[in-house]
Amino acid sequence: MIIWDWKKLTGLLLGAGLLGVCFWWLFFLRGFGTVVLATGQTGGTYTVLGDGLSDFAEKSNARFRVKTIPSKGTPENLQLLKSQEADFAIVQSGQASSDDVRVVARLYSEVLHILVRRESPLRSISQLSGLRLCFGEIGSGSRVVSLPLLEHFGIDTSNEVQRSPSEAIAELKEGALDAVFLVTALQSEVIRNGVREGDLRFLDVGNAAPGLEARFPFLKALAVPAMTYQCPSQTNGAMPRVSVNSIGVPSLLVCRSDLPAGLVYEVTKELFESRNKLADLSPEAYQISELTTAEILPWSIHEGAQQYFRRREPSFLERYSDVMALLISLGAASWATWGVVSRWSSRKKKNRIDEYYLEVAATFLRLEEDLSAKSLHEEKSRLQNLRSRAFQDLAKERLKADDSFAIFQDQLALCLNDVRRREEDLNQGS
Questions:
Q1: pTM of the prediction?
Q2: pLDDT tens digits for 18-30?
């Protein structure tokens, strides 16, 4: 039998306290160190989002730091994960399944842009067989989407040329290429710069999207909306004049499967808490969304990310306490009430986004008049305030981050660009 006196007990308590302080310093104050995030080609949306996350993680005193490294795209990023040269990576969906990779979050949808010269006689994909085509360099994500599409149409790609996006567009304009395939975010810099002079146009995939979805589940029917890209040389100042049918693929934030759940939880948490700030750098960030196990993904969701997505679920004790008996008896009534509240909330959010649509439409009407510099400045301030209000409502969950919100952002950006163009014309005229 051990007899404890007060000296032994005090020493034991002090030792336990010291051990606790060391544990707290090692795992909470010290954090997880620096993680490596593989992004994409310099200047692309992957790089913008990766660098933004790195910057915001440092400013928010997160328990980790992010070091970003560029790459040629998805295949290289997956190889960097496999070789453990990267911890996290941004990739396109549609890759081969692997036990070495886990999904953290869905980022945004990338759209296939098929570019041809404006004077080209090409009007459909079926006319591309045997021509000089470019799908990007080996290892680029554009190839993952483009090659299944052309295989579906039975297109001969033997004259393929491998170029970087900027090189491919330059050669297309010079006539050295007949068509360029680029899978990227809407409003990406490389597409904006490429079509700005009005010497290129988009090729429509026609009604092939449903068949492609059935054959390749990772592909989705998407479109390049009308008036998406500024084009001062065009009469209406933007292109395309009508929506162009296309296909797209989700981009995902993934990580190595062997990373600790605590680290992945912290990275996931920082990503979603930084979403609105990331949207200031790249509007695509508003599409960042949580995942469910029911979604069709090439890899499983990492346990750390699942813990974050389950953060609002009740604890074990709450689920299995005696109160459960009462909750079960009230379940039917609660479910009915929730349904009513949910439908009411959805209608309210729909009405709110409609109000934003009307404000942008009203500005478009006012811009049909010859406005003074002062009036244009007031319109620009009104639009900037409208954007700020919209993101505040999104952060407070008064709006949903869905296609309606995306259309509103596109129309608002188009309107702002029109105002800025008119201001530049007035300044040059004076």
A1: 0.61
A2: 766 555 444 444 4
User: How far are the Cα atoms of 310, 311, 321 from residue 316, in angstroms, in the given order?
Assistant: 12, 12, 8
User: Which two structure tokens, joined as six digits, stand for 384?
Assistant: 């900037």
Cα 88 to chain centroid distance, Å, stands at 15
Give 392-421 pLDDT, tens digit per residue. 888 888 888 887 788 888 888 888 888 888
Q: What is the CATH number of the domain that holds 165?
A: 3.40.190.10
88: nearest Cα among 249, 304, 284: 304
Whether residue 96 is found in the same domain as residue 35: yes
Please state the rounded mean pLDDT for residues 315-343: 64
Longest dimension (CA), the chain: 99
Rounded-to-integer distance, Cα 35 and Cα 68, Å: 9
Sign of the alpha-carbon torsion through 149, 155, 156, 161: negative
Residue 419's nearest CA partner among 358, 351, 345, 368 is 368
pLDDT band per the 50, 70, 90 thresholds, residue 51: very high
Residue 9 lies in a domain: no
In a domain, 329, yes or no: yes
